[in-house]
């Protein structure tokens, strides 16, 4: 493969990767500094490199048992969540705290902002746990400088021997935001560090501090240390890989849609690591070949299968490699770029199964799989990862979008006729005419289609990009604005007991909660800011409050806010003026408000003009 093709596929120049590696190891040797920065030109393009050092105190890796994770700070990383499911990512707490400390107590913000405003390319890099900080810095920069209202050059992150830093939502969210390609992770075949967090801290606690010192550039081993190293590395490698095997096997069963009773029994008693890979991984086999993988499920399988023992007699040799390979990335980059033997594992579902030359196991892909020592079972797991990705796309294709659009068109026509007379909401609420019944049928048809979509999203059975797809965001918003008022009308038409509770608390379906979150996230507006489809539910509750003879002063603040929101939504065309018809629910409620308040209301002119 030529250097040009390598650049075209990854979007990275060879010189950039080499420089990133060099600076990552320069920082590795300077742990007393928060970070290093250096400006250079590559092919006449100005680039700012920022590299972070590793630290060798175990408390800088694990903050607590069992896995040292915490919920991500959504104020700092608002995109790192499942939008519809409203589930925040889990992140390594020690790494997060270290990044926050650097952000608050160094000139990092200033340097990044200056480079962004000057249109420079920024490359964050690091080795070992310095790579973890580089990842968080890149995500922060993407959040701040690459939102829909800004047009800066996206930062890149190039890491070497990085540990995993968070759970599956990192992969899910970065794919949804189209950020995944900005993260390139180089991993040596046997390097133990990318696998460490697949083991609970309690299983490696006694050995971890001593193992970290082998990576410390200032560590000078004594003769006694050298003697102990063989035993400790074997024990450490065996423990980490045993846990990696459990996590990978459990994930493989899920990929293949089967259940392993033994594994299910084990997971009832043993917490599995939540950590998962994300971004593009480049596995270096130690012989100058680089294997590129973008499927995060496949990467997890490779983290186990590429480093497992073929024979127990290899334990000492492989365990030693698992430590040494963490420190040889500079040499490996030099050798790999001299050979430029790069293989892309893209069509995973079509990978050859045999490793002995049969079953079409020929060509560069077969050679690469053999070079990584992948067994038939490993290849089956990779195939399953590819098939799952393909199945998610098929699930999206099976959604009956045409049926949904057809039903929405008929409801639009129904709404247009209602707006002339009684109003959309109130006509549906009284259910006096045949067309009202037919509209209810269409409402239920659409509910079924969207409920199916939401169930697939809850199970992560649709592509990760789905909730960020502007076509689906816009369709979901149109559906919500058109149909939710009918759900609200239906709820309050049948409401017999006020103790049943408000619609927003007791009855609002997930299909509306999800689609509202989509548009709020896409537009980077506060949660709840796009609640135009539910304002009549609030009106119904405020009217109930008034009917119960509650003082106006108790609800005045809510009323004023609602009126200002309604004014904004009407002016933006997000709700229609039929709500202001003389006998509408809204106007009947508004007329019960004190005259003094109505005289100064910001929506008084809307009502008077109907």
TrEMBL record:
InterPro entries: AB_hydrolase_fold, EDS1-like, EDS1_EP, Fungal_lipase-type. Pfam families: EDS1_EP, Lipase_3. This is Putative carboxylesterase. Its main location: cytoplasm. Keywords: Cytoplasm, Hydrolase, Nucleus, Plant defense. It comes from the Eukaryota. One of its GO terms (biological process) is lipid metabolic process. The lineage of its organism: Eukaryota, Viridiplantae, Streptophyta, Embryophyta, Tracheophyta. It comes from Lupinus albus. PANTHER family: ENHANCED DISEASE SUSCEPTIBILITY PROTEIN (PTHR47090:SF5), PROTEIN EDS1-RELATED (PTHR47090).
């Amino acid at each position: 493969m030529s250097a040009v093709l390598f650049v075209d596929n990854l979007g990275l120049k060879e010189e950039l990767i080499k420089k990133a590696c060099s600076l990552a190891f320069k920082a590795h040797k300077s742990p007393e500094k928060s970070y290093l920065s250096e400006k250079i030109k590559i092919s006449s393009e100005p680039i700012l490199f920022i590299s972070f050092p590793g630290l060798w105190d175990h408390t800088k890796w694990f903050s607590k048992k069992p896995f040292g994770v915490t919920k991500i700070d959504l104020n700092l990383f608002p995109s790192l969540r499942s939008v519809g499911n409203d589930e925040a990512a889990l992140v390594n707490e020690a790494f997060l705290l270290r990044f926050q400390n650097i952000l608050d107590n160094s000139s990092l913000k200033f340097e990044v902002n200056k480079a962004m405003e000057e249109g420079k390319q920024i490359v964050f890099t690091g080795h070992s746990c310095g790579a973890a900080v580089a990842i968080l810095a890149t995500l922060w920069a993407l959040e701040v400088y690459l939102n829909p209202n800004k047009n800066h050059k996206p930062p890149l992150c190039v890491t070497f021997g990085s540990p995993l830093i968070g759970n599956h939502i990192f992969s899910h969210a970065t794919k949804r935001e189209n950020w995944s390609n900005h993260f390139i992770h180089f991993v040596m075949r046997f390097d133990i560090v990318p696998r460490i967090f697949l083991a609970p801290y309690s299983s490696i606690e006694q050995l971890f501090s001593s193992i970290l010192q082998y990576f410390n550039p200032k560590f000078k081993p004594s003769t006694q240390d050298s003697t102990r190293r063989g035993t400790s590395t074997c024990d450490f490698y065996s423990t980490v890989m045993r846990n990696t095997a459990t996590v990978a096997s459990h994930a493989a069963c899920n990929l293949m849609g089967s259940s392993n009773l033994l594994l299910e029994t084990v997971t009832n008693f043993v917490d599995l690591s939540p950590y998962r890979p994300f971004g593009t991984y480049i596995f270096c086999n130690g012989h100058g070949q680089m294997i590129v993988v973008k499927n995060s499920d496949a990467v997890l399988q490779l983290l186990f299968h590429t480093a497992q023992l073929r024979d127990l007699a290899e334990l000492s040799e492989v365990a030693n490699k698992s430590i040494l390979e963490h420190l040889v990335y500079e040499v490996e980059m030099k050798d790999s770029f001299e050979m430029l033997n790069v293989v892309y594992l893209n069509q995973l579902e079509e990978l050859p199964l045999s490793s002995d030359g049969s079953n079409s196991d020929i060509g560069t892909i077969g050679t690469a799989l053999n070079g990584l020592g992948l067994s038939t079972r490993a290849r089956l797991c990779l195939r399953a990862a590819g098939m799952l990705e393909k199945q998610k796309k098929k699930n999206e294709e099976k959604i009956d979008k045409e049926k949904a659009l057809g039903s929405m068109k008929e409801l639009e026509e129904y709404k247009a006729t209602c707006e002339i007379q009684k109003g959309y909401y109130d006509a549906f609420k009284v259910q006096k005419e045949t067309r009202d019944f037919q509209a209810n049928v269409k409402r239920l048809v659409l509910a079924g289609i969207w409920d199916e979509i939401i169930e697939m999203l809850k199970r992560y059975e649709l592509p990760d990009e789905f909730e960020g797809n502007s076509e689906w965001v816009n369709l979901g918003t149109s559906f919500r604005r058109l149909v939710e008022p009918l759900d609200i009308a239906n709820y309050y038409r049948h409401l017999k007991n006020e103790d049943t509770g408000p619609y927003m608390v007791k009855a609002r379906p997930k299909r509306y909660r999800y689609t509202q979150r989509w548009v709020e996230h896409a537009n980077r507006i506060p949660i709840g800011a796009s609640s135009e489809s539910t304002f009549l539910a609030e009106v119904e509750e405020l009217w109930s409050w008034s009917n119960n003879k509650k003082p106006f002063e108790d609800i005045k603040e809510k009323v004023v806010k609602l009126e200002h929101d309604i004014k904004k939504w009407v002016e933006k065309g997000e709700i229609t003026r039929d709500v202001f018809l003389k006998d509408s629910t809204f106007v009947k409620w508004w007329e019960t408000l004190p005259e003094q308040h109505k005289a100064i209301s910001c929506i008084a002119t809307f009502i008077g003009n109907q």
